[in-house]
Amino acid sequence: MLLAIDTSAGSSVAVVDGDLVLAENSTEDTMRHAEVIGDMIRQTLDDARVEPRQLDLVVAGMGPGPFTGLRVGIAAARAFALGIGRPVVPAVSHDAVAFDEWSAGVRGAVLVVTDARRREVYWSSYDLTDAGAVRSDGPALCRPDELPYPDFERIDATQIGAGALGRVVRLQRERGEQPEFTEPLYLRSPDVTMPGARKRVTR
Predict the structure, then answer these.
(1) From 36, 79, 95, 199, which residue has the greatest number of CB atoms within 10 Å?
(2) Whole-prediction pTM value?
(3) Superfamily for 2-174?
């Protein structure tokens, strides 16, 4: 049994047991990640009637996503996992969207697109076959008019479901697959940077 957390596009928390999502709470609000994530974790565990000690691991959505929102979910996942003595498994957030499409019966090449703000988008391409959803390219960042693969079916996602993300990780672990990305997928530098060395004033 696992707890999945994603804040790459809004916020979502889910408890997943095997292929079953026991409980999930989500919001598309992209401005209040830090204010809602703690209550969402508590509420989701209550809804699932699961105690933290019953969990085997915690899944953290690694993006792609904007810096501020994404790091809230990752920090929450790491802190919660540390508190209960369980491992954290990183996962690509777009994989959850592709998995949802695959589960709904979609087959073929699809392009998952999410808002990156600053008039840019994140994208990942997938091949959806009867065997599953396989990422073929990305995640990457570009302007909307620069999106590749114009012939692929485009999926614009405003929410990443933690339930789907948890199910993706369960399948990957069953297949013996290791996480491809272990660091947050910001794909651009943060707005705030450390100041450089002071310039020496000469007279």
Answers:
(1) 95
(2) 0.90
(3) ATPase, nucleotide binding domain (3.30.420.40)
